[in-house]
Structures are given as structure tokens and as C-alpha cells.
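Bench notes, afternoon.
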Amino acid sequence: LFFPEEPHGAAPVDFLQELPSCQSARRRRGGTQERRAAPQGPAATRVAEPRALQQDGGEQAARPAREYPLCIAEKRRLRDFQQADIKYLSRWKKWKRSSRKSLKKILSEAKGVSSYLVLWRHDIHSIEGRFGTGIQSYFSFLRFLVLLNFIIFILMFSFVTLPIIISNYGIFNSTIAKISSKNIDYNCTIYEPSGNKGLVYFYTYLQDLLSGTGILEVTSLFYGYYTIDTVWISIMRYNLPLAYLLATFAYLALSLLWIIKRSVGGFKQNLVHDADPFQSYCNKVFAGWDFCITDPNAAQLKHRSLQYELQMDLEEERLKQKIADRTIKEKLRIYSLRIFINIIVIAVLSGCFYSIYRVTVFSQEKSNDISNLNFQASLLVQYLPSIVITLANFIGPQIFSFLIRFEDYLPAFEIILTLMRCVFLRLANIAVLLFSLWSQISDCAADKCEPCGYNYKLYPCWESDVGQEMYKLMIFDFIIILAFTLFMDFPRKLLVTHCSCKAIQWWGLQEFSISDNVLEIIYGQTICWIGTFFSPLLPAIATVKYFIIFYIKKICLIHTRKPADKPIRASTSNFFFLIVLLIGLILAFIPVGVSIASIPSSKACGPFRHFNTSWQVVPDTILGFPRGLQQVLFGMASEAFAVPFFIVICLVMFYFMALAGAHKRVVEQLREQLVLESRDKMFLIRKITEAQRH
């Protein structure tokens, strides 16, 4: 049952002590240590392996032979040893081993079958084969958002919309209960949705579909529809306000955890990639080729992109040397120019924000008087904030890309800074829109808020109004993407293909910019996160929207655009996409949290109309618990619990920081060992060469 041991003395001890790695270790310890006469190297491993298996009573022998770091012949001998060892096992251990193997086989087959059920599996693989992993990462990211929105929709529909549907149809002997309003002024409870009554023109339905008003305002799409307090399903009481609030927390927490889980792998790859400039060169030269490419044109494009990356690395090294050699006069000139350009950037951002604020206020003030306007004018008034935000999102990045050329940054930092400015512009535009709405909702001048706590005359159900703005932003964003493809990309493709004019040929096809396309869908996803609280079925619209966008972008990539000559790496792009998406999620936390905790809830609609704020449903529910549980929960919310909890969290954080520092030192030592191993190999080669000469 034992492998034959190899003869000792294959390498003399004195000879091994001459190795550079041994000398370095001896210098660290400050002296020499006696080496054991036990067998070293692979021989000891081969002897110790079966002994350990035998001592473990066969438990470790269940590990497949292919998982051991042995050569093929030794793996075969180990497999024979494992099979012979089965004879001496008890029936229980035999059954346990066979069950483990069967379960592992079933799981492997199930995983293989489930891979065929992955959404757009074949399409994404074909895109990866034709255009590489960089563009494939965009479509994989789009698939992730489709799945995320679909799960959010299932969550909101199951816990918020479905109970009302069940109660309306009397399924499971269910009924509904509404609590009568007490201590609430009658004026606060007046809410008359602008539903279509009587004979209406056909274009009115189109206007309702685009703006979320009319027939859509009184459906389950918006917050104002959910006016039920309790649903009784048989003998079970379902607290709809609490379920609405918990479902909101659930979809935000689910999004946060899923994004963090996906970003961990990209963070590790990005950390390894940026750890050492020399390692970056080695990765490009020896591991930069994308073996998923099967198309000759894509292969030629990959050649050019690798060449471009190497040129940019060399240019970056040249610029670093140039920066190091700058005089004080040149530094003052560059810093002064950067300050001036940043002032221009701030002015552009301020102009965008002020324009959005003014048109939002104008649109909200005129929205109650659109009955006197025709179809086109009323639609323009309602969509005015969305139009201005879209124009700002289009013009701002063009200005930033032009100004960055004069700031004299490194090429890699230029890309990052431009992208971050564009991200800030897109997300801040949404924040300014919400701020404009809340300034109107909380406008209490001339006692407009008395006695409801908000401007009930202009916004009797302000949550539905915010949901309509988010709905219009999402619909308009989809219309712009579709219109740009139909009326810009396809005509440009026809001109370039069928017109031989030099100016047209120089203009060429538009590049498929991964970063710009990702910013588009992250902007839409941020709108979805914010709007889901005010429009519970908005994730369903986002799912359908991204599902259609996938095919629009695929057709656009294959037929009307060309891949970028300066692509970004797949690992870097995946990590960047998720970081920007995480920023959008954090931005969504703020308006949703403010709406729940600070702004008084509407008294005329919604599940929280009997509470001062949406958050008040939580302490109100806790008051219905047993007294002991109440004391525990209120104690957890008090300062006496929060301060020690914060201290424990800090200690845990410091522990993990120390652990990360220890791991970093271990990694540095392993790198040193790799360097020493390479020196050992060179030393041994030199000794062998000298021995052959003699």
C-alpha cells in the first residue's frame, strides 16, 4: 500500500546550501540551521501522501486523484490505492462515499443542463467570438440588469400588488379593510386623479401612455392606487403598509448585496492588474491575447488594440518622465490652467442644474393647466424636464471631452476623469430634478402646507407625481436610444456604404463606445431604483426596456457601428461598471430614505395616508408586539445599544485591516520566493553546464 521511496542523497546537502534561496534565508535568520536527513522534494510527498490517506481511515481517499499535484503515473497508482482501500471500509463509509459521488455527479449534470437555460447564452458567446471580451462584458452587464430588475419586479409584485389582486377577486376567501381617517383635515383627503371621463380623443390615450397620467394614474402602476390598509386572507391578517415598506428595503438590500458580490471578483483582478507596471507589460505581451476571438476582423482589431495599449503605456512612461522634469514655472502654468478649466466645468454643471431646476418648476406649475393646451403643447410641458436632462447628458460629456485635452493629464487618468465627470453629471441631474420636486412639495409659503404638512393643493398625492416623473424619464430615455439608432446610426451606415465622397468616408461609422453605453443603462437603472418606491411596477417596465435594448444594441453593433479602436480591458470594465452602478444605488438610497423618513406622507392616497411619515408604520407595528419584545426592539434602536455596536464594528474593521496587512506581507514574501526560485533555476543551469564542460 506504499509507494516505493526514491533513494536519498539525490542532491548533497552542501550543494543545496549553495542555492541563492538558501543563502538568503540563512542571512535572514542570522546563521545556519541543521537540515534534516529526511527525504526532500517529490519523493517525500509521494511517500507521505498514501500514509496520510491510510491514517485517515479512508476519509481523505474520497478526494479524486486528479486533484493531487502528481504526475499521471503516480495518479494512477494513487487511484489503485484508493480502490484497494475501499475493501477495508465499513458499510456506512462505503455508502457515504458512494452517496457523495452520486450527489456530486448529479450536481455536475444539473449545472451543465442549467447552463443552456442562461439568458442570451448563445448571443453573448457569438458577440464574444466576433468582438472580444471587452464588448461582451457590456452585454453581460446588460443581462445582469435584466435579471436584477426582473427579481425586483417579482418581489414588489408578490408582496405589494398580488395581495390586492387576491382580495379584489375574493380568492382564498380574502377581504380588505380600510381604516377611517381620524384627526386629518378634510381638505388633505381630497384627491381626484385626472382620469379620462366621457368621450375623449384617441391621442389622449397616447398622451396618458407617455406621461403616466389619465387611465394609468389610477392603476397599480403608481403609489396612489394602494389605499388598502389590511388584507384578510382567510384568518391571516396582511399588513400592506408594513409589507410595502419592507419590500422597498428588501429590493435596495438585494441590489446592494448582488452588486458587491459581483464586484469582488473584478476588484481582485483590477488589484492584481495594477499592482506592478512590469506585470502589466508582461500581461499584455504574454497573456493579452483574447482566445475567444474567432472572426478575422476581430483578430485584426485585437492586434491594433494591443498595439495601442503598448503605445499608451510607453507614452505614459514618457509623460511621467516629462512631469518629473517640469520646472516650477511650467507647474504653475499647468495648475493655473487646470484651475481655470475646472471653473469652466463647474460653470457647465451649474448651468445644467439651474436649467433643470427652472424647467421642473415651470412644468409642475403649468401641469395643472394643460387642459387649455393642445396635445403637442401639453406633452411638451410634461416632458420638458426630461428633454432638458437628456440635452444636458448629451452636451456635457462633449464639453468635458474637449476640455480634458488641455489639462495635460496622463492618458489613463484622462479617461477616468472624463468618465467620472460624466457620471456625476448624469446622476446629479436626477438629484436636481428630485430636489426641484421636493422644493415644490414642501413649499409652505403663505401657509400652503397647512394643515397637511405639504403643498396639498398642487400635490394632493405627491408620491404618484414623483413616480410619474420617474416613469417619464425612463420612457423618454428609451425613446431617445431607439430614435438615435433609427435616425442617426442607420442613415450614417447607408451614407458610408453607398457614398464614395471622401468627407463621408473620413467621417466613417460611429464607434461602439462601451463606456457611453454603460452610462446610459446605469442612468436608467438609477431612475428605476428611485422610482420603484413611488411606482411599484416600474421594474417590470425596466426589464422590458433592457430586454429590447439588448437586441437594439446587438443589431447596432453588428450592422451600423464599429468596435472602438481604443477598447478597455474586460476585467477593468466589469469592475468600473459595477462601481458606477454602486454609486447610482447609493444615490438612490438618499431620495428614497428622505421620502420615507422626513417628508410627510400624502393623506389622500397610498398605504401610509394614516401616518405622519412612511417610517412611522414601523414603531406603530412594534407597539402591537408583546411588551418584552417591544423593550428589546426599542432598546436596539437606542443610543445604549448603538454606541457599543459601533465600537464592536470598529474593532472588527481594525481586525480585518490588520489581517489584510498580514496577507499583503505574505504576498510580498511569496513574490520574493518566486524571484529566488528563478535565481535557483539559473544557478542550477549554470552548475549543470559547468559539469557538462568538465
